[in-house]
């Protein structure tokens, strides 16, 4: 089930909201939300619910064991719990990748290694990170292990952020699990954030998606014009798709009385790759910093050790996104730019005009998106060749010609503008009543157009569901 679907918007969400607000106590609301969260996750693929339930039960028990112990036994309990979580993630996410690479290596020798075909449970990367942050912070004595199984289960499985983030830490919602207020004002703010996210998904990301799909999947050796159209489309698509989901999750959280962390802050206006990672998928960046980069040593050692830590973190960040060499190289790509900026490129950037710094950062990000989107390395290399005109210059394929209709072109231009302009535009003051009326009219229009689009459109999953 996805947020931008008829099932969710017209059936699941209204029934859930009614049951939630008709339940008088916070404890009762937690039970209602937990039941609906499990139904949400099980919708379409109920067998994967067992994986989520295992994660809940195991980490609930593991946190209590860790909390009760001291010294080396405490560290051993944490090590075992982390290992089990990573083993489950590794089997489901990386077994096919590992066996496939072994099979490819041994095939020239005449050995039939065989290959696994394990399906990936929805959102396993996200709820595994929720579990890891919970048990690690219990180990660090940031808080005591929660003895209420409903609270722990709700934290791990809370449906707004269950399958595609933002990555919410237990300490962020710990107090809200037992005491939170749901007011009309909060519900209004949350609904507005949700509607904006829905519009980002269905009115922008889904409209430009066919352009990226044609360029990357249907046009071998695409020429320069088509390659740039497709890359611009994917740059817009992945931002509005993921930011849209994050806003919908944050908005739903506000309606329910929860506060989720902001996940995007105009990332395409960044003036360096360092700044980009302070603005893109911010909950993941902070998670990697606190649970991987700093434990590795962070920047406390020599410069060489700092560079090693940066590259290591981003290689693992790439692998977390997907079991494919393209994702690993995407991590290497960003890690390399971060190292270069620390080596001196950052100082050079500070001395050049702002627009050149922006162009450098945006082109570097877009180059990374080629690796991120391409299904394999040969396609990625050929796409890079197309971007510099090695496969021709001006023509576009029949498929791209069909996809590049007036609506798609207009949406691509508007999407590019919305992704970069707000940071640079001056602010305008207006009477409060006028601003409120304009905001209401704009939000209502987005809701109507989004609902009509969902009702008339086809199923379109969020990109980050597969990660």
Task: Describe the structure in your own words.
The protein has helices spanning 6-22, 26-42, 49-68, 71-106, 124-139, 149-157, 170-178, 184-218, 224-256, 273-279, 282-296, 303-321, 325-349, 354-373, 377-387, 398-403, 406-424, 432-456. With 467 residues, the protein is mainly α. The protein is globular, with a radius of gyration of 23 Å. Helix 1 runs antiparallel to helix 2 (26-42) and helix 3 runs parallel beside helix 5 (124-139). It folds into two domains: 6-180, no CATH class; 186-466, no CATH class. It contains 18 helices and no strands.
- Name the quaternary structure: single chain
Helix content: over 70%
Low-confidence stretches: none
Mean pLDDT across residues:
89
Q: What's the total count of β strands?
A: 0
Topology order in helix (H) and strand (E) letters: HHHHHHHHHHHHHHHHHH
Give me the secondary-structure category. mainly alpha
Largest sheet report:
none
Short structural summary:
With 467 residues, the protein is an all-alpha fold.
List the defining traits of the structure above.
single chain; 467 residues; 2 domains; 73% helix
């Amino acid at each position: 089930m996805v947020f931008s679907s008829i099932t969710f918007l017209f059936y699941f969400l209204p029934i859930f909201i009614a049951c939630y607000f008709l339940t008088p106590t916070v404890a009762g609301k937690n039970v209602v939300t937990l039941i609906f969260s499990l139904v949400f996750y099980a919708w379409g693929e109920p067998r994967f619910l067992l994986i989520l339930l295992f994660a809940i039960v195991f980490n609930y028990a593991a946190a209590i064991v860790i909390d009760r112990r001291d010294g080396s036994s405490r560290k051993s309990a944490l090590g075992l719990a982390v290992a089990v979580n990573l083993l489950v993630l590794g089997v489901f996410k990386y077994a096919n990748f590992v066996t496939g690479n072994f099979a490819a290596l041994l095939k020239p020798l005449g050995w039939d290694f065989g290959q696994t075909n394990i399906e990936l449970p929805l959102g396993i990367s996200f709820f595994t990170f929720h579990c890891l942050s919970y048990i690690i912070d219990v180990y660090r004595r940031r808080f005591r292990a929660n003895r209420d199984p409903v609270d722990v289960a709700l934290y791990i499985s809370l449906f707004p952020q269950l399958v595609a983030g933002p990555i919410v830490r237990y300490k962020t919602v710990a107090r809200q699990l037992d005491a939170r207020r749901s007011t009309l004002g909060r519900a209004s703010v949350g609904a507005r954030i949700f509607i904006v996210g829905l519009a980002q998904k269905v009115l922008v990301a889904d409209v430009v998606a066919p352009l990226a799909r044609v360029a990357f999947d249907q046009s071998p050796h695409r020429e320069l014009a088509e390659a740039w159209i497709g890359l611009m489309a994917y740059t817009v698509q992945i931002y509005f798709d993921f930011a849209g989901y994050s806003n919908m999750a944050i908005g739903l959280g506000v309606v329910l009385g929860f506060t989720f962390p902001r996940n995007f802050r105009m990332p395409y206006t960044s003036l360096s790759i360092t700044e980009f990672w302070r603005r893109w998928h911010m909950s993941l960046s902070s998670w990697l910093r606190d649970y991987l980069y700093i434990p590795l040593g962070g920047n406390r050692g020599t410069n060489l050790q700092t560079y090693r830590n940066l590259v290591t973190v981003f290689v693992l960040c790439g692998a977390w996104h997907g079991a494919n060499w393209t994702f690993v190289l995407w991590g290497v790509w960003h890690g390399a730019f971060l190292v270069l900026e620390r080596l001196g490129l950052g100082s050079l950037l500070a001395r050049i005009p702002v627009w050149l710094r922006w162009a450098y950062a945006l082109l570097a990000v877009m180059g990374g998106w080629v690796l991120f989107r391409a299904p394999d390395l040969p396609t990625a290399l050929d796409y890079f060749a197309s971007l510099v005109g090695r496969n021709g210059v001006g023509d576009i394929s029949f498929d791209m010609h069909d996809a590049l209709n007036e609506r798609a072109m207009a949406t691509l231009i508007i999407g590019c503008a919305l992704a970069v302009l707000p940071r640079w535009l001056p602010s305008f003051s207006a009477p409060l009543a006028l601003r409120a009326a304009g905001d209401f009219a704009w939000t209502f229009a987005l809701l109507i157009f989004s609902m009509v689009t969902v009702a008339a459109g086809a199923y379109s999953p969020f990109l980050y569901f597969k990660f």
